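Quick check before the chapter quiz. The format below is the same one you will see on the exam, so make sure you can read both the input and the output lines.
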Amino acid sequence: MWGRRASGRGSGAAGQRRSLLELRDSVATLLSAIRRVAGMPDYAAHLEHMRRRHPERAVPTEREFYEEYVRGRYGDGPTRCC
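Here is the expected output.
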């Protein structure tokens, strides 16, 4: 009676661990959405895309991925003078 939650998730360390994992997943999903809205690349989504659509290609490191993004976004130089 006292040790159980009304939500049915259980109690104790296992319930806490599950809650923390759910929170972590929710935060990761939120950050991914914010990155997309801001126009930033999402490395985790890119890895998933590469795994599903292009399994024969080499997967770039996170640094290579962002360097390619910056090169594609801004080209060889600044986009304005000031």
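If your answer matched, good. Residues 4 and 11 are 6 Å apart (CA to CA).
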